[in-house]
Fold:
Amino acid sequence: MELTPGLTCHRLDFHWPGDRSAKRPVLASVDARFAPGRLTLITGETGAGKSTLLHLLAGLLRPTGGEIRADGRPVSRWPSSHRDLWRRNMGIVFQHLALVPDLSAAENLLLPLVPRKMAWSGMQEQIHERLVDADLADLGQFPARELSGGQRQRLAMTRALVGSPRFILADEPTAFQDDDHARRMIAQLQTAADEGAVIVVCSQDPRLKGSAAFHHRCHLASGTLVRSNPP
Amino acid sequence: MKFSLKEYPLLVWAARDILRRPGRELLVSACLASVTFLIAVALLFSQAMETTWNQLMARAPDLIVRRIDAGGWAPMPAEAAVAAATSVPGALAPTPRLWGVATGPQGPVTVVASPGVIPETTQQGLTPPVSGQAIVGQGVTGDTRDRRLILTGQDRLQLTIIGTFPAETGLATHDLVWMAPADARRLLGLSPGQTSDLAVNLFHEEEEAAIQADLADAFPWPVRITGRSDGVLRHHQRAVHMGGIAVVACVPAILALVWIVAGTAATGSNQQAHWGLLKSLGWTTGDLVRLQISRAVLLSAPALAAGLASAHAVVFYPPAAGIAAWWITGSQRLPALVLNRSGAMITLLEIAALVIIPYLAAVFLATVKQVANEPWHQMMADPWN
Amino acid sequence: MIWHPLTWAFWSAAFTGLLIYGLAAFRSANVFLDWQPDRADSRQLRRERDAEIAALLARGALACLAAAALLGLIGIALAWHWVVPGAMCGTGVLQAMGSYGSRALIFWGLALVILYAWWVLERLNRFDPMGGLTWQAARIWLTAAPFLLAAFIDSWQALMRVESTPPVSCCAAVYDQVLGETSAAAVTRRLLAASFWGHLAGSVSLLILAVRRIQRPERGSGILPAAIMILWVPAASICIKHFWSAYYYQVLSHPCPWCLFLSDYYGVGFLIFGCMAAAVLSSVSLWTANHIRRHPLLSKPAVKRIHQSAWQLLAAIILFTILTAGLALVWRLRTGVWMTNPF
Structure:
């Protein structure tokens, strides 16, 4: 396969371990390409496997068949040591946010930056800029558990964007946001896309379904991913 | 795994991570400090004993010649002994010595008579004792302030104490009484012209073993020759045995430390989920192991310093040193001990190998076992999921 | 001597290292027996996890075993001779240990060289995301096992022997070898002369090879430096013992390498033999990296490694020469004579 930029799935299969699960695959022969500089929205019913697809794209899970390529490299076939290293190019917003509750907002943003061996001052600068962008500048020293649901979600998004990753995967990033903040989050994703990032968002949020910001839309059902038309 | 200056953020993060569980880390730190203290006291004590004895023995004569007969030790004629020793090539400055054992107020004492000056006493402003006077070691009269000293040997002698030997010579002068030659002869029953033994120095101290046979042949009566290396060896072996037994005695403490560390490093589901999260954010398994090792190093450095400093104080500085003396030797008096550079280096290496290596290995193994999982499975350990 | 605290420290480091080595070897054995890089099933995933854990454990094991070896060396050189009757330096300690002592040193050296080769290979393997050299790394790790076991067994025998041995004669061990029968002495002289010139020629060859690899790391063979090193090490050791050490001791004949480690000579033995060890490890690194250079994905990092190793070899040989022949030259310039005669 040629060195195609972006994230590419080729005949991607996934089922959970166990004989019974093998008969009900979560993903079956999924082919997709997520190009750089583009926002892709994936919709689907609850339990369709959207989060699982995102976890596979992030290399957190290994597919049971097929492969995933990132900028032409077969990352899904790499051992975990190299996938972990490759994931420094990745920003992930989890559905359940996965913030560290006893760390402050600023410290949560530090987590992706520490292993990149950046200069300490550079890290502090980036964190401050991102907190301002996310309207969380005054809350930087507060522990994450003391933030509201919406603030925590903005923090999770900020953590995904800090470090300017090449690939951004977001699972229900606007679930707890009001309209204004939802628009701001989409604008942040658009800015990242303009800088060449590959962006994949899974969501049932009607505000995202109706947004013109997304270049591609797909629908996941019965283990297959099909292109859908914009509303 | 590599550590470099670029690991500074990791070190800062490791310090922050320690503060997230202060109670647990304090427990590990206290255990480490305690184990270090126990082992360091024993090792410092045995090493310092060895070094102090070495330094004292460095000024001892290379060989001592004593006459023996059917009844054991016997005095020998000084002039004939000196002439015999002088006739052996390589033997230098044979010196007759006058010394023996007598009974003092606290028990047996070693009596010496030197016509010359003992340098350590002049530093204290003491002059050599004349007839009727004595300079004594700190164990001779005990805690009494009585300046009279009554000794019993072949005769009974009353002397006036004019001074005590300095504390740093305590290892060799604890039970020593220095008196005038005439008094010593009266006490020990030696006539003028007789000597207790002969001290001989050598041109090459490496010839110590080789020259003994020639020296024995030169004397017209049976003699027993003792080399300095024999005395040094005996004390080395004793100090080493003491240190080794102390290490064995501390093995349960080291094992307990390893268990505690492994137990605290072993993770619940929260920590598993945290590591899974870190991996999803770009931390590799190597980074996580480096983080844990950095935490262990940051935690152990002050604990080790505290343990070593306490042990150093207990071994070398009174009154804490008196407690150590009583604990280790059962005696209430501890000679002033010294430690040299190579002794200190070896002691530090021993402590590093006996405490730090098992501690870091426990942290390392407990971490490796748990971090090398797929990040998704680790994150799912969080009950929230 | 079994009671010496440094003995316990040695065993603490050694057994910790052996434990971690064993854990790594277990995982490496799984990889060696069942590595299927083209497959992505659960079995291969387990093997990949084994490989990752083995690599991590192996680094810890290497650190512990190297620490143990260093402690043992310090024990022989600086600490244990004080409690062996008649011993004045490491020669007396080795004499008390019998043949086990020398064998233990050789096996420790071989084991550590193999583990170092593993480390070089593993560091280069990390540049290949597919881990193309993982199987080879597992194989090399397991190769060290018999040498390591032999090192442990001989170390145990050596240290246990010291407790019950009669007094040694350190000088006799040294001088008996020097003062022999006439015919044996003549052979010895020829051997010494050959070692002397061989070691000088070897040093010059290694310097030239190192410079050439620095200038052109992508060309040349790793076999040649390794082959020269195999001959150079024993020749250099003989020369240190019979020629160069005299300039430190400033006596005409005292062929004892272990006295160089004593504080009387500022522990210069650690530096001299440390340079020798660094040169050996550099040549191992050169050979390993050269071998890996043919791997298409690893060619660039392997060439970089060759360049680094060549520099290390150059520095080690230069420092070694300064510490040995350099001192002899200084003596010659000061006094107008050589102290030892290699002819």
